[in-house]
Request: fold
Amino acid sequence: MQTIVGVLRGGPSREHEVSLKTGASILGNLSEERFLVRDIYIDRQGAWHDRGRPSTPDRVLRQLDVVLLGLHGEYGEDGEVQRLLERFGVRYAGADSFGSYLAMHKLMSKMKAREAGLITPEFRYIESQDDIDAVAREVTRSFHQPVVIKPVGWGSSVGVSIVGGYAPIREALERLKIDGARGILVEEYLRGKEATTGVIEQMRGERLYALPSIEIVPPRGDFFSYASKYSGGTREIVPGNFTRVEAEELARAARVMHRALGLRHYSRSDFIVTPRGIYYLETNTLPGLTQESLMPKALMAVGITLPDFLSHLIRLALDLEPAAPHPSRIAEPSVYR
Reply:
């Protein structure tokens, strides 16, 4: 009997379009022999559609055995849709509602990182009702310039800017406040190599298997912004140009954050590698799975196909024992050789 798998994509998020691509990638890589796949589209207003027809969550979810989430940003990664799935008793892959909320809230994830012994950039947290003018003056005086300004609860670098000086800082803060950011982080700007490391539970005989760390090289004059993530202009080196010590520490730190945030099944954490050490930035509980996304590239580097990865997530979500990998597919990341 085939397992009925619902793939949720779209959603009322600033990352709606990227979510559609991740969902399409998931749909295109699920075995039709093993799974009966249902395409569940959630529009920008939050209305659900089952195979192109308007529906409601209760009608959709009671027909499914398990859910794969192709959602990103608000509603998808902040725990809201996870709470809905938990309310209906539907099994799903990825972090639960509380772990999703913790990881999405950049201030809370930084606190968890520091509690776990990792270092993070120095920061100033700003409430939405704070006096933007006073904050801009304080940040200009107390931080080396430029600084990183980011919304606390958005993903994919949406709303992130690197600016220096009172006027640009004030403008960036004001723009986020107008756009509805509920909280803002101002962080010290660190120069170094951008890195990201994915981990997968119960993979290749390991309780928490670390994928090779990817080095991210944005276009000159840019950072890993929303535009550079999906324009194809960023170079992503797998495995990255890290020393053995750096590679091992990145893997360790990604495992530490997966556990510290209480996540499930898989995650991907972002770091900056500097001469002063490796700084934790944030964790993605639903990493993109598009053709341009980082997680599939790391999977490919160690011989794990996207169909096999998705099947593994379904097994984890259904709480089944993962099948033993075929010997021909086992290959250690070259960074560890």
In short: The mean pLDDT is 87. The CA atoms of residues 246 and 283 lie 18 Å apart. Residues 103-117+191-336 form a domain with the D-amino Acid Aminotransferase; Chain A, domain 1 fold (CATH 3.30.470.20). The first helix runs from residue 16 to 28.
